[in-house]
């Protein structure tokens, strides 16, 4: 068979389609313990479980924010956490029509013999883990593959390894009822121009969809989480309209229409940049058979984090900041963002060299 | 680099988009001398140049027909032929708003060690030939790759070789200003069901688009000419709506939106079947970012040929028959065909020939 049609096929298609609802997107709140530690330390908050719990509660209970979201990606610890009132986070999300998702990869490791290129690990017992996560209420998963642009990168080896890895992860998820988000992130690091990023993104996406086909992945039950096509971090910036043009062209050349939605990662973009770029894409008058939305981590949480500063008295204000970004991005998915919900914090670049989650 | 660089980029995109104009499609009149010989002999007409020329003149000057066509694929001989009055066929087509196209492959050759699988030849000197064809007025090209379904076929080897050949051909065409029609035909021969055909079609198309990407082909300046997804020739037939569903789904899973149009081959389908299937696809309410049209040879010419029978006094009858099929297929590209075309003799006749070779 070309596409695997298991017992979860209809559910996968339904959930993937729902996540791709225009006007909604994904909050990526799946920072591993190590990574969330860096965030917390940047606002001088101790990296202990109750603080991690408090942060996520702040986000998930923001009045009216959940209506802008179709999904939230969680880290394993968070999947089993509750509000301070004792309500499981998963229930909070479900009651508000937000699908819980789960990060299932176990980070990257270097590929020997390459110039710092990586592959992603996490296959051991992946099927069994997915079953557990499904029982706990998760209905989609995420796995991040990372590629970089350099004089000789990405190499064919790296492209193949990461594409095959994503495809294998994807089919295992589908066998166990989780919609796989396929994330082949091409890092922004480097002095290259936007054309180079476009070329690499197209090559990588073509390899990914070939691998998905080989592994019998049901495309209607998947989502794509790509980088936007932009100049390298060491290159001059360009307008959102230019980013939109290159990005949508790259996707039109590689992503089959069976994929219901594309949910961009924000990379190192500031909150406002990410929103403006997404908005520009949705304003573009060209045929797009998949919805274009967001799966933002830093670009949804940055100003919220800073406003919170770990202090209970700041929660309401922090939640306002979060709601503001959610609304802005919701409008951006409809091409209706009017701009101007950028406070100073929202314009701050979030670029970190060689970013590791 | 994935990015394509050619001085013809804008022209290619413009021409490919034009060929995909809703309401129009392609007449495949590129039968090689050998193949057209079989057609002519089936109506007792001698296979000489004058008769080949007369047949094509009949087709290209059929009153009212050209408005339903955006392109005609020609064989090399025909590219340089004229009407009896001395007007080059290429000019007749251009004046009728139809882009001339040219078959550039040189037929299939068996792949050693396989069970009758083939690859397509024609790459030697292809660039020079394409340049010549462009000068003669051609603006698109066609190359037919062939795969078959059987117990162990298509093999990975056959898929890769044919995908690679198509991609190399396509890249060369684009460098020379010709829009490449990419044709990976999976033969209908066999006793397999429609699901098997769907599976193979998806696999083959995925390989094609990976190869096209590897070879830096600009998809906006290409067209796809696939088989429809149907049961095998020895299997029970299914309704047009079923063919439409399986076909469009296979395309949704494999053909990137940058491709402006998909122009189906008719394989061994009768004229009416091919039209009804195309119509059903265009009625389907689902995501179709490329237009769905026709590139029919037999399925446009069969009743015309029979009506003509090589006799000048039958000219009008024959041209009327062609017009009927052109109009019907034009409506089918819009999903408005009511199935009421006056069926010429042979319009409902299957045109399947086992293991068909052009």
Automatic annotation (TrEMBL), chain A:
It catalyses: beta-D-fructose 1,6-bisphosphate = D-glyceraldehyde 3-phosphate + dihydroxyacetone phosphate. PANTHER family: FRUCTOSE-BISPHOSPHATE ALDOLASE. SUPFAM superfamilies: Aldolase. CDD domains: FBP_aldolase_I_a. Its EC number is 4.1.2.13. GO terms for molecular function: fructose-bisphosphate aldolase activity. It is an enzyme of class 4 (lyase). GO terms for biological process: glycolytic process. InterPro entries: Aldolase_I_AS, Aldolase_TIM, FBA_I. This is Fructose-bisphosphate aldolase.
Automatic annotation (TrEMBL), chain B:
It is found in: Cytoplasm. InterPro entries: Aldolase_I_AS, Aldolase_TIM, FBA_I. GO terms for biological process: glycolytic process. GO terms for cellular component: cytoplasm. Its EC number is 4.1.2.13. Belongs to the class I fructose-bisphosphate aldolase family. This is Fructose-bisphosphate aldolase. It comes from Hibiscus trionum.
